[in-house]
Amino acid sequence: MSAPDVYRPAFFDPLSTEHLTWIICRQFEEQPPVRLDTVMPSFEGPGLYAIYYEGDSCDLYRPLSGLTIPLYVGQSRSTNSATGRTNPSTRPLHSRVHQHRRSIIEGGLPPEEFSVRLLAMPDVHIDLGENGLRVGYQPVWNSVLNGFGSHEQGSTTRRSSRSKWDTVHEGRSRTYGAAKHDRDELIARATEAIRQQVERYNELPWHRTALE
Q1: What is the pTM of this model?
Q2: Cβ atoms < 10 Å from Cβ of 200
Q3: Which UniProt keywords apply (predicted)?
């Protein structure tokens, strides 16, 4: 008789990066979406957020309507991770979403066709959730059409070339620099990226479990 296989017990680390990321992303996607044209009551604290398209008038983003695939994932902290300084606002998450709503309007997009999910949480865990959602979904405004979440910081920045997002969605006051990106090429790349996102829609572990 052959010798039996050596038994090895299963290994489980409840605080592993993978497990914590799964928990945060699953909890995040259980939060109800809020339409961006809604007057959101003020609230305090940092957290994680994602912007979704739920409309019909934007041809580029229409395939995402009704799906839990974010256009953009971001975070807002109570402290600056690089300097350790405290955020001057006690409402960093609320303020950041308000800024994004203004950008969407200035970019010529209808805010009533966009929604946002939010999850207030401690700074120490925010990166895990943001990284999990960004790597998992590859949101178009984080990857192909980057520049949506950038801050305008001075005259030099305002004179710089338009970001990819501002090239496709013109209108923000910062967008009067010389364009260096081909708009049609960016739209084609974003269209293909969205097609692939929809194709992979049910592959993410926390999303698949949430659907069951």
Answers
A1: 0.86
A2: 13
A3: Endonuclease, Hydrolase, Nuclease
